[in-house]
Amino acid sequence: MAVTNHLSAILGLDIGGINTRVSLMGIADGKYRVLGSQRTATSLGQGLHIGAGVGEAMQAVQQETGHPFIKEEGGLLQPVDRIGRGVDRVGMVLSAGPRVRAALLGLTSQGSIKSGQALFDSLPLQTSENFGMAHLANTTRAVETLIKTRPDILVIAGGEDAGGEDLTMRWIDIVCILCQMLPEAVQPLVVYAGSPGLEGAARRWLEPVARLQVVPNVQPVFGEYDLVPAAGDLEQEILHKWQAGLPGLKGLSELTHGLTGLSARSMDRMVRFLSLTRGPVQGQPGKTGILAVDLGGIFTTVAAGIGGQSGTVVDDKFPEIGSSALHSASLATTTWAGEPVTEAESERFLTNHALIPAWVPETGLELALSHAFTRYRLQQTLQRLSEHYDWFDFHPEYGLKGTFEPVIVSGAVITGTRDAARVMLTLLDGLQPHGITTLVLDRNNILPLLGKIGEVEPVLPVQVLSSSAFENLGTVISVSGRVPSNGTVITVHMETASGKKSSHFVPSGSLLRLAVAEGERAELELIPHNRVDIGFGGPGQRGRLRVTGGILGVVIDARGRPLLLPEHTDARVALLQTWLRALRAEHNSTTGV
Amino acid sequence: MTLQRLRALPLPGEVFVNEGEQVHPMDVIAEASVPGDIFMLDIAASLGTDHVGAKRALVRHTGEYLHKGDVVAQIPGAFPRLVRAPLSGRFAALHQGNVIFEVERERIQVRACLVGVVRSVIPEYGAEIETHGWLLQGMWGNGRNSSGGLRLLENTDAGALDPSILETVEGGQVIAVETCDDEAVLLMLAERNPAGLIFGSLAGALAPAAAALPVPVVVVQGFGPCQPDSSIFEGLQALAGQTACLSGVTSDSLAGHRPEVIIPTGEGGQAETVGIRAELRPGQKVRLFSGKRLGEIGEVKTLPDDLVLFESGLEVPAAVVELGNGEKVTIPQQNVVIVG
Predict the structure, then answer these.
(1) Is the pLDDT of residue A307 over 50?
(2) For the segment A64-74, what is each residue's pLDDT rounded down to a tens digit?
(3) pLDDT in the model for residue A162
(4) In chain B, which residues have their Cβ closer than 8 Å to the Cβ of A348?
(5) Which domains does chain A have, with CATH numbers?
(6) Which residues on chain B are in Cβ contact (under 8 Å) with A367?
(7) CB of A179 within 8 A of CB of A210?
(8) What ipTM describes this predicted complex?
(9) Which residue range forms the structural domain that includes residue B294?
(10) DSSP three-state, residue A93
(11) Which of A144, A177, A322 lies at the smallest CB-CB distance from B93?
(12) Cβ–Cβ < 8 Å for B246, B236
């Protein structure tokens, strides 16, 4: 009989741009659990060492758990000794570095450029422009422009598996010239991710003059992506750059023996894995996806997966100061604030917040502005993901179509806010989900770590995901379709495991929170208006649903899609506050008869 | 205050200074170069041969500098065929029958942007410069550096700038203004060709215009209406006429970079590093970035051991800060910036 040696204690390091988290994972009651987790400020900046913040958080975890793993003279006790001290492995995920300069060389905007852009957007890369077929018209100019761009990474895409090689060969030519021209210190990594028919030519021409990686075509067939292999190589290059530039990171990476990755890539891996395990949600036809959102201090990261395919976008948290995007963000922040603020006040809030990314809201108004901006961040990043993947359909005007269940959310702006109703409203407004989903809070930002540690201990993510490390904020049932302007749009008959029965007649345009205690099971009978869709297969389709209560029980979102906000400030503020109050009030007896 | 600042190239190059050497703001500390414009000469086509034939026909080697008219390649014989360089440049590479000439190189320089002494040299990259001076760290910069004689312009009681004062601004001066919320004024100031502009606060809407200006801009307190910080302008007033060195780098919390103004005073003092993420300690002067006292300056009195619950519902580490009027306020530690 084969004996499996499981790791008994694993230390997870998550280093973000603002916060560093250290989590100790080990076995409790026969299953992997998060035994302790602590957060400190990331020690990055002039004269600082990244290990300082990590060390502080490690000490705090050791104190919290009583599990000794730090040697008296410093360093880690590895592996776990006979009396259970120490850790077997250390895993680390990072989102704390600057974007790395990269250039994408492809052919058409709807083909290789689109797939390459999806690849670039999934990573902390910075591009000044994409190079397409038009740039091939003048080789000299293309080489000169690339020299000026001085990318650290060059990706050659173009041509499908079935052909399209002539023009891609021109890019190989150009890169060959470029690499002969550049001094060694600024030679980029060249990743060939184009037509496989040219792999030999790429090796022949580029290997003598460049650091070359050849990966499978990012677009094997028009409209289909294969980004994972290329993303893996780019991830390594980004980590290499960060290790060279961030004091202390190299030493920390050595502790992990290769188990270091980018947070975004590890999130992507987790949602891809989880999406393979998802069957249809009760009564809801079609594939069920998984959505993970990290509202970090520097980046907003969204990863979605469905049926084993995944897509990720890493967006900057703040638009550039003075940009038109910042103006749009100010406008959206004003709209969603739920407080009477002017656009100038919102702009001032955003510009000053952007100057101090670690800033936290002190007053109620600042919290409202912060959550209003969070809605905008969510919408922008989801929309960007939607532009890349046909299977992911989001637009701020109609919300997130399809079934994504659960939606896992991390980031201090959400998990650090005590008012669960405000958190729920922010997420509902930002995501505007359709049908039935569950919102889950990842308070310790464990998900990316699970993706990384799962590489060496595959059972750990499965067991930790079902533990209390992830908090159920609440199941949400959202109505969409031609929602009537008044009257009942959905009737809910509910029976909890404790035997309480209630009926709720939910009026159009409202939010209703049903009282199901956290962790308690309940069965719902959902009867929508005949023009209303709640995800059971079309308008008017009714069904039964078994749920487990979250922090906010179960929420019925009968506001319809799109969410319509009054233009007049007073009316808009009043409506947003009505919605917030509705989520703060729970209903455990029959309502709205 | 004794200050050390690193001046380094992003890629290896040549360092022009030595340890102990005195430097001035415009002195080039180090220089590197990358190819600029290139020119491709298709000698295979010119000689009517293929790539292999072109390679055989070459009479010059990669790395050589060629003058306009020099023979690059030739096929000898009774009727020899020649290809001459159409312009001067370095023979950088031969690719597929094309000779690639590097016509120009783009120079990347790093200047001292300070009056000081070279403390140490970092071979191939640059040097660390030490200076004694008055330091003012800002919140935002437009990425440019310069230096010039410092001059303060006073706002009117309504916060505006008198146009007649603008006309007296001379080229090469570093102009400090408490606040500006008028784009026309900002552009008029820039038209006077100052060496740099320092604003206490700037209207948020002016950020795009400030970012695009060819002169360095440093915003000290932040964007939007802020109560002017008298300590900044009293400090500057005392140093009016002296050389102010502006480093308008973009704020980068990961790298700990902040835009700053250094006015060399020639006086010694204790070395001090002031950064966004420097450790907060009682006695430090800080600027508040939240709450009702946003933008004000005060002194950290205590750092409570326990987390403090704020009106927002967040329970975070706090600092008790005493403002200029004696009032004490409690603020999240993350929302203060150390200014001295």
Answers:
(1) yes
(2) 999 999 998 88
(3) 67
(4) 204, 223-225
(5) 9-94 (3.30.420.40), 100-244 (3.40.50.2300), 268-294+391-587 (no CATH)
(6) 312-314
(7) yes
(8) 0.85
(9) 285-338
(10) strand
(11) A177
(12) no
